[in-house]
């Protein structure tokens, strides 16, 4: 950063100290000569009264300008001679234009213009430029000096107004920068929340299904092996296969999170993998029927097929966990002119009958969120005769 930028930042950060230092310097420069050259107490008081209010030229510009104007009016009334500290009038006018409200800025310009002209008239005879004296050069000289003084007043006000516009522009840019930073942080937070939700759905689908199959198989093997020890090896094989498949899915998901391109490009489950999923569930002891009706008019997006697979997976997992023993499930896929209908029915006792199913609603919510990404619909009902039904619809994505 350049030196003048650092200096400007420091000056903006401590305006009170800067104004105090400037006022002290002006006291030495403008009031000092008056104290040394004049023995008139009123002139010394006028000089001090004109400079001291500049301490508040930025914090209270209207009050500071009012005090300086009052001192100047008293000078005119009591005919106190002008002093070098009269330059404080121009500084106060600049401060009004730069820091005060617009009405005060314009009002200060008018007061300063009238006051300077009145001062010229008041002291013109003392300086030999009175327009009322019968001399050929008096009136033209007075007009020239009056024009120069009014130009100086207008110039000081114009510089202050430019400083005001620059300050307001910088404030607007700073406010816009802060808003953009807040919006960017909000977008990052929303993206992170969406990613966490996506990861939670994937983890739920992978872990819940695999653990349900493993737990079901382990419980069945524990009781069946008492009567028939040969059941244990086959059951342990199913548990091992399910665990390996779950581990592969977990590695793929973690690979995506790490940015591992090799693992992230592995194919995701599709509708073609539903039959293998049902075979896994059947090995876990759940009797499941599977049917496909009709043919697709067009291919579904890969994400929509993954959603359909996850709906079947989550529904069968819920059947394993909540439907009870000897339950049966029916998975039906039906292609219609509008899209794909998925129906998963079971004849068990339903999730509401399971006292351990306090968190069962998370799976339904996850399926609804997945289907919502593809304008799909989900219906989950417990029929009066028992069992549970999951009905989902995924429309074609029309070009």
Shape summary: rod-shaped
Distance between the termini: 53 Å
Number of domains: 2
Give the strand order, joined by hyphens, for the main sheet: 1-2-3-5-4
Q: pLDDT under 50 segments (min length 5)? A: 353-359
Order of helices and strands: HHHHHHHHHHEHEEHEE
Q: Which range best describes the helical content: under 10%, 10-25%, 25-40%, 40-55%, 55-70% or over 70%?
A: 55-70%
What does the secondary structure layout of this molecule look like, with pairings?
Blueprint: H1 3-13, H2 15-37, H3 41-51, H4 61-78, H5 87-99, H6 102-127, H7 138-227, H8 231-258, H9 261-264, H10 274-283, E1 287-293, H11 302-322, E2 328-335, E3 339-346, H12 361-372, E4 377-381, E5 388-395
Parallel strand pairs: 1-2
Antiparallel strand pairs: 2-3, 3-5, 4-5
Helix pairs in contact: 2-3, 3-4, 4-5, 4-6, 5-6, 5-7, 6-7, 7-8, 7-11, 10-11, 11-12
Tell me what the structure shows.
The protein is built from twelve helices and five strands. With 399 residues, it is of the alpha+beta class. The protein folds into two domains: 3-182, no CATH class; 272-399, Heat Shock Protein 90. The chain has a five-stranded mixed beta sheet with strand order 1-2-3-5-4, covered by helices on one side. The radius of gyration is 44 Å and the shape is rod-shaped. It starts with a helix and ends with a strand.
């Amino acid at each position: 950063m350049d030196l003048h930028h650092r200096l400007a930042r420091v000056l903006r950060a401590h305006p009170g100290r800067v104004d105090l230092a400037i006022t002290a310097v002006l006291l030495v420069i403008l009031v000092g000569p008056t104290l040394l050259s004049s023995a008139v107490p009123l002139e010394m008081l006028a000089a001090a009264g004109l400079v001291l209010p500049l301490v508040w030229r930025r914090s209270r510009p209207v009050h500071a300008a009012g005090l300086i104007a009052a001192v100047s009016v008293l000078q005119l009334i009591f005919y106190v001679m002008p002093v070098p500290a009269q330059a404080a009038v121009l500084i106060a006018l600049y401060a009004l234009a730069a820091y005060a409200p617009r009405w005060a800025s314009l009002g200060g310009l008018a007061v300063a213009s009238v006051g300077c002209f009145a001062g010229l008239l008041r002291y013109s005879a003392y300086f030999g430029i009175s327009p009322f004296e019968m001399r050929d050069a008096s009136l033209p000289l007075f007009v020239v000096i009056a024009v120069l003084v009014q130009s100086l007043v207008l110039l000081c006000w114009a510089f202050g107004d430019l400083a005001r516009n620059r300050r307001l522009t910088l404030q607007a840019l700073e406010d816009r920068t802060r808003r953009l930073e807040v919006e960017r942080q909000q977008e990052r937070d929303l993206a992170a929340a969406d990613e966490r939700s996506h990861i939670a759905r994937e983890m739920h689908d992978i872990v819940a299904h695999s653990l349900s199959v493993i737990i079901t198989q382990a419980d069945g093997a524990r009781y069946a092996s008492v009567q028939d020890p040969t059941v244990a090896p086959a059951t342990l094989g199913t548990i091992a296969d399910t665990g390996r498949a779950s581990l592969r899915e977990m590695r793929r998901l973690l690979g995506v999170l790490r940015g591992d391109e090799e693992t992230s490009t592995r194919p995701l489950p599709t509708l073609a993998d539903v039959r293998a999923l049902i075979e896994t569930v059947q090995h876990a002891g759940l009797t499941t029927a599977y049917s496909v009706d009709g043919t697709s008019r067009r291919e579904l997006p890969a994400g929509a097929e993954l959603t359909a697979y996850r709906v079947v997976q989550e529904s069968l997992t819920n059947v394993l966990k909540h439907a009870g023993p000897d339950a049966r499930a029916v998975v039906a896929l039906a292609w219609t002119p509008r899209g794909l209908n998925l129906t998963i029915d079971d004849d068990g006792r339903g999730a509401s009958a399971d006292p351990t199913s306090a968190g069962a609603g998370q799976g339904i919510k996850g399926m609804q969120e997945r289907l919502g990404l593809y304008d799909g619909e989900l219906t989950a009902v417990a029929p009066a005769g028992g069992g549970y039904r999951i009905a989902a619809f995924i429309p074609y994505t029309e070009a």
